[in-house]
Amino acid sequence: MAHWKSGMRYLHIQNEVPFNELVFPAKLLFTCNESLEVDSLHLGSLPDIVSACTENFRSHDDLDADVIIRQFRIPNGQVMKIYEGNGESIARHIWYQDAGIGLAAWLIDSLERLQQPGSEQLNMLELGTGCGIVGLVLGSIHSTCRALLTDLDENALKFGRINAQRSSKALDSTRECRPLDWGNPNEFTLDRQLDFIVASDCTYNIDSIPDLVRTIADLVQQSERLQIQWFTPKIIISTKVRHPSEAIVFELMGKAGFEQQEHASVAMQDKHRASIGQELEVVDIYVFERRRVTSPLD
Question: What is the reported pTM?
Answer without folding.
Answer: 0.87
